[in-house]
Design brief:
Blueprint (H helix, E strand, L loop, with lengths): L3 H11 L9 E5 L4 E6 L8 H5 L2 H20 L3 H14 L3 H12 L4
Antiparallel strand pairs: 1-2
Length: 109
């Protein structure tokens, strides 16, 4: 289940807005997350509007987890630059092969 944060963020983006902590706050009173304050110049989303972002929210959260995994597996930028340098010097494809493997091991929807 997508988080309220993700669904609210998608709602804002669909309405050409960006997340701003000074215009919006989320809270949880123990019975679930809810929008505690809203001061955008668009209507606060209804529960049904937020629910309509469930599938997109699940996809966004799954892709964010995949991106985080990929970032660790791509190695540091120094290591990447070393692979690129050696590929150019030796006519190899080590860097491309490495990136392809990271992507194939961690596919996105």
């Amino acid at each position: 289940m997508a988080s309220l944060f993700t669904k609210t963020k998608l709602y804002l983006e669909a309405n050409s807005k960006t997340w701003d902590d000074t215009k919006l706050s989320l809270q949880n009173d123990g019975s679930g997350d809810f929008i505690a304050s809203w001061s955008y110049d668009i209507a606060q989303p209804t529960a049904d509007q937020l629910a309509s972002y469930e599938t997109a929210g699940n996809t966004a959260e799954a892709n964010a987890a995949i991106d985080a995994t990929r970032r660790t597996q791509y190695l540091s930028w120094q290591q990447q630059m070393e692979m690129i340098y050696k590929d150019q010097k030796n006519g190899t494809t080590t860097f491309k092969d490495h990136c392809d493997k990271v992507r194939s091991d961690n596919p996105k929807d």
